[in-house]
Amino acid sequence: MDNIVLCGFMGSGKTVVGKELAKILGVKFVDTDELIEKEQGVAIKAIFAIHGEDYFRDLEYEVCKKIPEMKGVVVSTGGGAMTFERNVEAVKQGSKIVFLDASFDVICERIGDNTTRPLFQDREKAKKLYDERKEKYLSAADFVINGDMGARKTAMQIADIFR
């Protein structure tokens, strides 16, 4: 089985759906943000604050280059990961990318007033970022799934594609 790499905006359900999908398929779940935090020993928010976004994106790229070495896993990527061509090219080797296309309103409901998301502190800026990234997600994706559904239903739809 190819790796299944989930992409989408923050709050689109990549982690929750990814864990559910991995359980359904009986495979390992990997979260790129968790890998970065584990390697660096600090939270993503701290990496952004201390080193800036460019430094974080370089760390993210290094993790993306390791995904093809993993076999038959479900991977949740950070919200910006698949907006960079170098990351898309790195993961496409032995992986299929699934875009969880959640509406901005649903994302706002899910995130609420969550202050742990560095790029979601200002709703107007977040909406602009959402609009900018959507085209990039669509061009990176092998499959597009409605991300407004519950995690279980979304995971089942993705599982049906890969069975």
TrEMBL record:
ATP binds at G11, S12, G13, K14, T15, V16, R117. It is found in: Cytoplasm. The keyword Metal-binding applies. Pfam families: SKI (PF01202). InterPro entries: P-loop_NTPase (IPR027417), Shikimate/glucono_kinase (IPR031322), Shikimate_kinase/TSH1 (IPR000623). One of its GO terms (cellular component) is cytosol. Pathway: Metabolic intermediate biosynthesis; chorismate biosynthesis; chorismate from D-erythrose 4-phosphate and phosphoenolpyruvate: step 5/7. Keywords: Amino-acid biosynthesis, Aromatic amino acid biosynthesis, ATP-binding, Cytoplasm, Kinase, Magnesium, Metal-binding, Nucleotide-binding, Transferase. Monomer. This is Shikimate kinase. It comes from Eubacterium coprostanoligenes.
